[in-house]
Specification:
The complex is a heterodimer of chains A (about 110) and B (about 450).
Chain A lengths: L9 E2 L2 E2 L1 H10 L6 H18 L34 H9 L4 E2 L2 E2 L6
Chain B lengths: L7 H9 L5 H19 L2 E4 L11 H4 L8 E5 L26 H8 L3 E6 L33 H8 L5 E6 L5 H7 L2 E4 L19 E6 L2 H11 L29 E5 L8 H9 L3 E5 L7 H16 L17 H12 L2 H14 L5 H22 L4 E5 L14 H5 L6 H6 L3 E9 L2 E9 L4 H14 L2
Parallel strand pairs in B: 2-3, 2-4, 7-8, 7-9
Antiparallel strand pairs in B: 1-3, 4-6, 5-6, 5-10, 9-11, 10-11
Helix pairs in contact in B: 7-15, 9-11, 9-12
Classes of the chains: A mainly alpha (about 110), B alpha/beta (about 450).
């Protein structure tokens, strides 16, 4: 069971293969059968290493999300200027499948 | 004239005094690259002479700032209408549709680009061995790595196959290869240089910066590439000073800190030199240093997993057909991404996923605050912090098979990115013939002091 208080599914002290498969599916990446064991070892080793952060008391610490100080930097939503029709054509030209001015995808539903 | 030894200042002088023309120089560099690159593999793309992307006419070259100085550009920085791969198969044939802001600025300043340099795939690596297009050799010793992820750019400058280069740095990717190759590499303050047109890896950590033969050239390029940009909302509106102006100013009385967490054996001579120049060197502590790597290797893969979601085989890049949409995603991304990229995407997706986010990603962001505060405390009393750039000299190609042992190369560089500070690596000697780098870290937006300390040290050892 995966919940807030659960660390991760252990299997012989390593993250379970099925957990890696679940995460890989979320990330839209395939892991071949022959790669699973190696990846399991690598990810487990890294997760063991980063576990050292649990030594610290971070109870009243604010997270840093932005290394810089820039806040709410807006600009006008203006499609004209140097990125005109030529750029649009170049961008569309890179899509493997398109229809008119739209990029085409397979059925979603 | 040995073109391999030319600095930007030499090019400016040579053009103005009509010792050579910009075209002659470009031609000579291209011939040299064609001869030496097949072995070195520093460049992934070499531009044709006809398409060297000069923005200025012949007459304008001599009056431009850079006078047609030939530069190399890391292949995660977009140059319009040229192949931009980020070292990945998923972008193998992708042509950039616009210039990165730094490229526009450099073109206006009279730069000429020789080609795009090799890198670890999507900047994920510390050796350039993760490139989908083969490793680059360290010009100082061909059995060794040039470092990463800007290995191609550092190698090109060290081998004299460019006068200077651009790299990018997320956890040390300019400074570490600069250290390994014996050249100068600067990571600016986060927000100092626009990231528009830089293929994103970790958006709160990435910065573009110069890799050069000396500190003066680094300062000169910083003058050109720095500044606010409406296309990058994280680019700061902090005013840009002339970084070359005070390079010659003495560092007498400057207060330099050496953290006890950074072993200083390899840079002992450099520290003595700084003291001889009149700086006061004292020991301090950055107590959360030992948590920096773990913090970085949670935050960076998390941000990268989000940034790399755009490579889906639908909009551009490698596209594999599938039975349905999910199948198409799986095939394109699995085929297009290398092992390290897939590893980090999975790590990042895990750290961000429901049930784990608070314990991993959020915790890492809080530790990031503690790391940032360590630096702020030291900078209340000191002007700069120094230490070795890397724990070792360049390791052998193929030596580090284990991902975690590779990550440990970044141990002295990552905390700087987490805190968003500027830092430079300058050559400060050799061990067994392999270069070592001195890292100088500055206060936020104080590239001036970082460059000045670097220049003063460099001048004293010439």
């Amino acid at each position: 069971m995966i919940g807030k208080n659960q660390v991760y599914c252990y299997c012989n002290d390593m993250i379970a293969k099925k957990e890696i498969k679940r995460i890989a599916d979320l990330a839209r990446i395939n892991i071949a059968d022959k790669e699973q064991e190696g990846l399991q070892k690598d990810i487990s080793k890294i997760l063991d290493y980063v576990d050292k952060l649990k030594e610290l008391n971070v109870k009243n610490i604010e997270p840093t999300t932005n290394a810089g100080k820039a806040m709410n930097a807006f600009r006008s939503d203006d499609p004209s200027g140097e990125y005109g029709a030529e750029t649009v054509a170049k961008i569309l030209g890179q899509a493997p499948d398109k229809k008119g001015e739209f990029v085409k995808v397979k059925r979603v539903i | 004239m040995d073109i391999k030894k030319l600095t930007i200042r030499d090019v400016q002088k040579g053009i103005k005094e009509k010792d050579f023309s910009a075209e002659e120089l470009q031609g000579q560099f291209l011939d040299l690259i064609k001869k030496e690159n097949p072995d070195l593999n520093a460049y992934l793309t070499i531009f044709d002479k006809e398409k060297l992307h000069p923005a200025t006419t012949k007459t304008e070259v001599a009056s431009s700032v850079l006078c047609g100085a030939p530069l190399a550009v890391k292949d995660n920085i977009c140059i319009k209408d040229t192949v931009t791969t980020a070292g990945s198969k998923i972008l193998e044939n992708h042509k950039a549709v616009y210039d990165a802001t730094v490229i526009s600025k450099l073109k206006t300043a009279g730069a000429v680009f020789l080609g795009k340099t090799n890198m670890d795939e999507f900047a994920m690596g510390s050796s350039t061995e993760n490139s989908a297009f083969g490793v680059t050799k360290n010009p100082r010793n061909h059995s060794r790595v040039p470092g990463g992820s800007s290995g191609g750019s550092a190698a090109a400058v060290a081998a004299g196959l460019a006068v200077a280069a651009l790299g990018s740095d997320t956890g040390g990717s300019i400074r570490q290869p600069a250290s390994f190759c014996g050249v100068v590499g600067l990571k600016p303050t986060y927000g100092r240089v626009s990231r528009h047109g830089l293929i994103a890896m970790a958006s709160s950590l990435d910065q573009i910066g110069p890799i050069t033969k000396n500190v003066y050239d680094s300062a000169l390029l910083m003058n050109i590439i720095s500044g606010t940009d409406k296309m990058d909302s994280t680019a700061s509106s902090q005013s840009v000073v002339d970084f070359t102006k005070n390079l010659g100013q003495t560092i007498k009385g400057l207060k330099i800190a050496i953290p006890k967490e950074f072993p200083s054996e390899s840079i002992k001579k450099a520290l003595s030199k700084l003291e001889a120049l009149g700086a006061r060197v004292d020991q301090v502590s950055l107590p959360h240093t030992k948590y920096a790597l773990a913090t970085y290797y949670l935050i960076m893969p998390s941000e990268a997993s989000s940034n790399l979601a755009r490579y889906d085989g639908i909009h551009y890049g490698l596209s594999k057909n599938g039975d349905n949409l999910l199948d198409a995603y799986l095939k394109s991304r699995t085929k297009g991404f290398g092992d390290e990229v897939r590893r980090r995407i999975i790590l990042g997706t895990f750290a961000l996923s429901s049930g784990y986010h608070d314990e991993y990603y959020l915790r890492a962001q809080k530790v990031r605050t503690l790391i940032r505060q360590d630096f702020e405390k030291v900078f209340e009393k000191f002007d700069a912090i120094v230490g070795p750039t890397t724990p070792t000299t360049a390791f052998k190609i193929g030596e580090k098979e284990d991902p975690l042992s590779m990550y440990l190369s970044d141990i002295y560089t990552v905390s700087v990115n987490l805190a968003g500070l500027p830092a430079i690596s300058i050559p400060c000697g050799k061990i067994d013939g392999l270069p070592i780098g001195l890292q100088i870290i500055g206060k936020s937006f104080d590239e001036e002091t970082v460059l000045r300390v670097g220049h003063q040290y460099e001048s004293s050892v010439l």
